[in-house]
Amino acid sequence: MNKENDSSVQKEWASGATATLYLLGAIHLGLFAFATGQVPSGSAPFLGFWILGCAVALLALAMVELRRGEVFTGTIGMVFGGLLGLGSALSFIRSLWTPGILPIDGWWFLSAGIILFLLLPAAWRLSRFLFSGLTEIGITLTILGLGMIGVFGAPETPLKIAGWGALIFAIFCWYNATAQMVNTIYGKKILPL
């Protein structure tokens, strides 16, 4: 019997982790461009809508992961989709009415960094590579949050540092996603993780 055509066979959903990583890379590339001045500050609302689109998809993928019983990747999707995705999207869109950096935005970036640090023991158990990526973006978000709150004085320098950290994380996400995809498709380890 051909199971592909048999509608009575319930298929398990594939993992959303690969798509999650590609979307995270896209978000962080946009953040890099904005934070390092590659695009004008007036483009903040457009970046907000870009991130909002990715955030909605991230939340849907996180629900898939949680439904599959993948607590870690589901939680990562919820943190990045909900807190960082929706939070930063709405912050950038808010700049239509109230331009500039507000300290309140720094507090939720800081909270995201703290949450990522709290996920590190689980990440260590799963993969040293994943651990290094989450450590890097946790440090980046903490610097960004503290800079926006005003701990370092003017936020320009922490913003630039965080921008470059976002680029590093985007590359990490895209490599990780591509390695997962290639290794799965070929059924063997082609790209190391």
Structure description:
The chain is an all-alpha fold. It has one domain: Alpha Horseshoe (Serine Threonine Protein Phosphatase 5, Tetratricopeptide repeat). It has 6 helices and no strands. Helix 1 (17-35) packs antiparallel against helix 6 (156-186), helix 2 (44-67) runs antiparallel to helix 3 and helix 4 runs antiparallel to helix 5. It is globular.
Features:
193 residues, single chain, 0% strand, 75% helix, mainly alpha, Serine Threonine Protein Phosphatase 5, Tetratricopeptide repeat
The CATH first-level class comes to Mainly Alpha
Proportion of β residues? Answer: under 5%
Q: Alpha-carbon distance between the termini?
A: 37 Å
Fold-level CATH name: Serine Threonine Protein Phosphatase 5, Tetratricopeptide repeat
Mean pLDDT across residues: 92
What is the total number of structural domains? 1
Sheet/helix structural class: mainly alpha
Topology record:
Blueprint lengths: L16 H19 L8 H24 L3 H24 L8 H24 L1 H22 L6 H31 L7
